[in-house]
Amino acid sequence: MKKTLLLSVVASTMIMAGGDIAPVEPAVETPAPAVSGWEFSGQAALYYQTHDAFGYSDLFDQDSSAANAGLQLRAVNSDLYNGIGAGVEVSGLATFDLENSVVSDVMQGFGTDDLDGGWISQMYLTYGFDNTSFKLGRQELPKALSPFAFSEEWNVFKNTYDALLVVNTDISDTTLVGAWVRSANQNGYGLGAMNEFNPSFNFQAGMSPLLGAFASDMNSFEEINGDHGVFMLTAQNKSIENLTLTGSWYYSSEFLTNDDLNILWGDAQYNFMQNYTLGLQGGTVMHDAFETFNSGDDTMAFGAMIGGKYDMFHGAIAFSSVDDGGFGVFNVGGQQTALYTQMMLNERAIGFDSDTFMVKVGADVLGGKVCAAYGMSDMGMGDYNEFDLSYSAKVTDSIDLTVAYAFMDADVTMVDDAEEEPVLVPFDESNNVIRVIGRYNF
To answer: Which residue has the higher pLDDT, 115 or 425?
Structure first.
């Protein structure tokens, strides 16, 4: 719940009377100054996750569990001076010494042995005139408008980007978004044992120090492509009733090599019968010289979904297909994808060379939402199956609780490069994951 800081002055008047007949002067009230315009908010989070490490450990064992306590404070002023606004957010993580008794790792960290610390997660200036607004600095980017560089909310805190964002609404029913993204931190799994499952090429490992293999260095904002950065242009149109069309183009010159990177992505969602949605998405990731990856080919991907709600029930069916191109479908600052088939853990199975089917059903019961989902991926390296079951509830107006369980099973052929000559080895294991998140919003 956001609270507005009010600066108030209480004035008291001393009344002096000379005898019983002296008149009493009326009290003079000093008017309160205008509201400062600052809005303050934040959250406190407790996060715990455990898994059985593909049979090498047990649920709730110290060696296969991770935890964080986090505190996030933010202040925003939309008109600090002459229309210039500002925002700042600081985030901190602690372990309460649980790593010495209950867990052995953290979900988010700092890339060092220091498990307790903080960072500036957002700090930006804003300015607007007519139908155009600017936002410069460290900020969140939404998946709906930036499908290949967005802030993920599944972990303790969201990842953020150093960027310039421009939004224009001059065209009727149309939002134009331009961005230049220079650097980002990395939102990844803290549990090292979860990284053992690698059914496809790890895009992040080959990109830059920023995108290391599932690192979670929240205080490290590394350049995405040196001084070039990445440019993005998105157009979203709602001219046709109940239809939202979104198209994005990303461009970066001399991306890792002397070749340019181009990404085209589109999404169309149509709402019908009030509570139902039909969606189509697809695009390509183009780079001329990436033979060091899975292949030197461009990545082509598409997806479809239909979902809706009836009374207390809700559900969706989705499909996605990604070919064996060099890049796959990815998020430059995180783990997940913008594909409709994204589940709790399956981003590495659906993002490269795969056809994925997913079905999800849920209900508003037990004072919250219960949801079950099943996904199956037919990959070039084998098969992947996942089942998710989650419960989320708003315990009070300020407290949110999420409890989630995931079962993942992989039957794939992996590359073992520990020896001088890499060899193909079968991998047929399952993993159980339990996640508990509590948040207090203020």
So the answer is: 115
